[in-house]
Specification:
DNA-binding, DNA binding, 2 domains, six-stranded parallel beta sheet, repressor, alpha/beta, 39% helix, transcription, binds alpha-D-ribofuranose, LacI family DNA-binding transcriptional regulator, Rossmann fold
Length: 275
């Protein structure tokens, strides 16, 4: 039952409040929510998921949007079902088939990146990724490698680093020394850090190395050079997630709701033909 007959309270769980991808997601939900729902946001680390859920339930949420990898999605599903709390998962999901979900076409996203770099004639491409990857990132990489594997003469150099601006910055010398003429960073945060690191090392982007990110976060168009990236309709994702959880609250018997959103290349200054 809803609190005092007012708007339902929806809890939103993300891995980080600082990553602009999730800031956009939360902003879109808040804009969309204004007289539909009240929202409470929480960010949780990998080892805090359970506490995070408990906190949300203590706050009396009526439903949840989980934009966070769940290592034990089945357990969480059982638990939330028992509590009668409907939830929608989006992005990062490792099991989307057990609940309502919104995701983007990650495989195509990876392909779009690879095609762009192949068309520019790059033969040695660094792939920067975090050590531990979420399911959506693995799909992104599968799309990327599917295209590269079709080429006989294109090589991927995998480099692991943190999924953050600092991660990209810290690895710049390694990227430069690898002989790669292009780098695909699994998100914009890493890409922005890499731009700074390459600049510090006297490497020119895109003349010496092209850089392409992922997410089309708001800083991407303001960096120098501006960052080529892939946009994944994060705004729409937030709206849909909220609509889905509200629909489920109204009608628990609805068939499973699923939306898969398109992605699109945003070509800017940081990618150019291979030197
Ligand atoms: O930048 C955050 C990344 O993690 C994004 O690419 C998004 O898809 C999320 O999974």
């Amino acid at each position: 039952s809803l609190r005092g007959g007012g708007n339902p309270l929806i809890g939103v769980m993300v891995p980080s409040l600082r990553n602009p991808f999730f800031s956009d997601l939360m902003q879109s939900m808040q804009n969309h929510a204004h007289n539909l729902a009240d929202l409470v946001f929480i960010s949780v680390d990998d080892d805090e998921i359970e506490q995070g859920l408990l906190k949300m339930l203590e706050r009396g949420v009526n439903g949840l949007v989980i934009a966070r990898m769940l290592p034990n999605a089945l357990e969480v599903d059982r638990y939330l079902q028992k509590q009668g709390i409907p939830y929608v998962v989006l992005d990062q999901i490792n099991d989307s088939n057990i609940s309502d979900h919104v995701k983007t076409d990650e495989f195509t996203g990876g392909q779009v990146v690879a095609r762009h770099l192949v068309e520019l004639g790059h033969k040695k491409i660094a792939l920067l990724h975090p050590d531990v990857m979420t399911t959506n990132m693995l799909e992104r990489i599968s799309g990327f490698t599917a295209i590269i594997d079709e080429q006989d003469d294109v090589e991927i150099i995998e480099i692991a680093t943190k999924l953050s601006k600092h991660g990209g910055l810290a690895i710049a010398n390694k990227v430069a020394a690898s002989g790669a003429t292009a780098a695909f960073t699994l998100n914009d945060e890493m890409g922005i850090g890499l731009l700074r690191g390459l600049k510090n090392g006297g490497v020119r982007v895109p003349e010496d190395i092209s850089v392409i990110g992922y997410d089309n976060t708001d800083y991407a168009e303001f960096t120098v050079p501006s960052l080529t990236t892939v946009t994944q309709a994060v705004w729409r994702m937030g709206q849909l997630a909220l609509d889905m959880v509200l629909a489920r609250l109204k009608d628990p018997a609805l068939p499973m709701q699923e939306e898969i959103l398109d992605v699109r290349l945003i070509q800017r200054e940081s990618t150019a033909p291979a030197p």
